[in-house]
């Protein structure tokens, strides 16, 4: 659904990371879905949903190129042209199971909203969040308010040194939800957790499945990340 979202706030929260809150029309927004946001560039930018409170949607994004630089320059009162919510998210029907959420960098945002909704349903969760350095860590307190949270940094400047796969090896859980860079997803998809769901981040064209800009290889063919995903069972895709 195309709509116009009003920017409520937009500010840095960590090195290279921004938090933007916008007001949108009231709608059911599943965790793990995204909005396709128009910027100064030709192609829209997919932004995953980090949180929803009433008609206020929170996006967290990393400033990389011209499109996200344009978003970083937006101020309260500005209006964004957005499509969404789009895609298929994480399944919340996990009653009686223990869920581990594993995020890397800008793949962390959709896991916060997911964890919040799981917690509200009484489902026990643990989160492992990986970042490059101490300066790039964000949303730690928000995650800790929802339960056990492990932070890792590649350079060892904060939390546990190394990658998320280190502490994940010692976690006993029934289900894994993960989002982050492809090397990380490939590693966690091969983990010992029985049920594994991964959210894939791909550059997108239309965002609604009409083009083939975001295809991902799958057993027996290809899937479209925007419309078939972005969340898949690990065995449904080939990384």
Describe the protein in words.
The protein is globular and about 45 Å long. The protein has about 240 residues and is an alpha/beta fold. The two termini are about 30 Å apart. The protein contains six helices and 15 strands. The mean pLDDT is about 95. Helix content is about 15%, strand content about 35%. It has a domain at about 1-85: Elongation Factor Tu (Ef-tu), domain 3 (Beta Barrel). The strands form three sheets. The chain has a seven-stranded mixed sheet with strand order 10-9-8-7-11-12-15, with helices on both faces. Strands 1-2-5-4-3-6 form a six-stranded antiparallel barrel. Strands 13-14 form a two-stranded antiparallel ribbon.
Topology diagram in text:
Layout: E1 2-14, E2 17-23, E3 34-37, E4 45-53, E5 56-62, H1 66-72, E6 79-86, E7 99-104, H2 109-120, E8 125-131, H3 140-144, E9 149-153, E10 160-161, H4 165-168, E11 175-179, H5 182-189, E12 195-199, E13 215-218, E14 221-224, H6 225-228, E15 231-233
Parallel strand pairs: 7-8, 7-11, 8-9, 9-10, 11-12
Antiparallel strand pairs: 1-2, 1-6, 2-5, 3-4, 3-6, 4-5, 12-15, 13-14
Domain FAD-binding FR-type: 1-92
Family: Belongs to the PyrK family.
Keywords: 2Fe-2S, Electron transport, FAD, Flavoprotein, Iron, Iron-sulfur, Metal-binding, Pyrimidine biosynthesis, Transport
């Amino acid at each position: 659904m195309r709509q116009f979202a009003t920017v409520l706030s937009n500010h840095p929260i960590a090195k290279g990371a921004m938090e933007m809150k916008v007001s949108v029309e009231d709608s059911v927004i599943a965790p793990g879905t995204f909005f396709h946001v128009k910027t100064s560039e030709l192609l829209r930018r997919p932004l995953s949903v980090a949180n929803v409170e009433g008609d206020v949607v929170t996006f967290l994004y990393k400033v990389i190129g011209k499109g996200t630089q344009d978003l970083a320059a937006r101020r309260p009162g500005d209006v964004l042209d957005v499509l969404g919510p789009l895609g298929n998210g994480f399944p919340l029907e996990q009653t009686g199971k223990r869920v581990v959420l594993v995020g890397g960098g800008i793949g962390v945002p959709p896991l916060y909203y997911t964890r919040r909704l799981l917690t509200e349903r009484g489902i026990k969760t643990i989160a492992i969040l990986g970042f490059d350095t101490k300066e790039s860590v964000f949303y730690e307190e928000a995650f800790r308010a929802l339960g056990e949270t492990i932070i890792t940094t590649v350079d060892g400047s904060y939390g546990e040194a190394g990658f998320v796969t280190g502490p994940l090896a010692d976690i006993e859980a029934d289900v894994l939800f993960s989002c982050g860079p492809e090397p990380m997803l490939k590693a966690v998809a091969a983990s010992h957790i029985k049920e594994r769901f991964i959210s894939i981040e791909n550059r997108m064209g239309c965002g609604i499945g009409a083009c083939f800009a975001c295809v991902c290889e799958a057993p027996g063919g290809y899937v479209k990340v925007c419309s078939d995903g972005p969340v898949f069972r690990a065995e449904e895709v080939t990384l």
